[in-house]
Structure prediction request, 327 residues.
Amino acid sequence: MEALRAFLRRRSPGQSELTTARTEADEPEVLSGLVDGVTCGAPLAVILRNSDVRSEDYREIRDIPRPSHADYAAHIKFGGFQDVSGGGHFSGRLTAPLCVAGGICLQILSKMGIYIGAHILQIGDARDVPFDPVGVSDKDFEAIRSNPLSTLNEGAGENMRAQIMAAKEQGDSVGGIVECAAIGVPPGLGDPMFDGIENRIADIVFGIPAVKGIEFGSGFASAGSKGSENNDNFYMDGDTVKTRTNNSGGILGGITNGMPVIFRAAFKPTPSISIKQDSISLSRRENAVLEIKGRHDPCIVPRAVPCVEAAMAIALYDAALELRVES
Ligand SMILES: Cc1cc2nc3c(=O)[nH]c(=O)nc-3n(C[C@H](O)[C@H](O)[C@H](O)COP(=O)(O)O)c2cc1C
Prediction:
């Protein structure tokens, strides 16, 4: 439970000037499935209560949807009955339970020798150094967790902080990229076509609100390179099959090849900004101007880092479970 609490704290709001001013204890209350800190086989049910709520901030949004938030799409789908306050079912808050599930998977995976870590690769135009695709190690993960802004290079974090603060002062927001790696992943996890490891990771990563893109290994850059540049040549390292490069991001044909699994997820800038924006009134069917009140993250990315780790952990643990069942 201590490890889980520490993991959840990395996502919790209100911890610095870079996040929303809302505060949540995020104390996981276990309803069932745990006896004396050990899972007992009954379904594990955990509740995280919302304590710092200001629903009145969302009154106007019921009629005037926020540009690039889910308000309009949800209004159409649910006929106006959707819960708007706090973002309802579309709130970043829904990543708290994702982190409970992922935080538990991370603990089980580490007992299997599989370790997962993520860092902020980019915010605005400030960049960190990327993971070494063949040499990323758990030392890198430790270094990231000791840096206040989850970067490999501490200096990069300072530039990112400046970008977030500049946007915040203007009532604006910024987006960014989270890079995630898993090491110790055995070869052979996953399936061809529709149930590949890429598919399974992407499925859960897109469950994190504000993710708009994902790439594995050399990803979009591979489209502009030659086969001779992008192919990962095999070699024997003692008795282990490895590749000299890892442009495949540890996945071939949807199946892990034993190299680090690496992907990057792109986050859009937070849609709720305090600058006035053009929208519409749903009741009056006419154009309207929206001025958003309420407390929002000027950048989603710092709080999303553990969410991305959680998504990778859930996908890989699910796949690893199949191996265990089969053996
Ligand atoms: C950890 C986290 C915190 C978020 N905080 C906010 C926020 O404060 N304000 C906001 O408008 N959107 C926030 N979002 C993003 C919205 O939930 C998201 O953009 C919206 O639901 C629309 O979904 P889409 O961007 O995936 O299309 C947050 C997302 C995450 C993952």
User: Anything to note?
Assistant: Residues 1 and 223 are 44 Å apart (CA to CA). Helices lie at 2-9, 71-78, 95-111, 138-146, 154-169, 197-205, 227-230, 301-326.
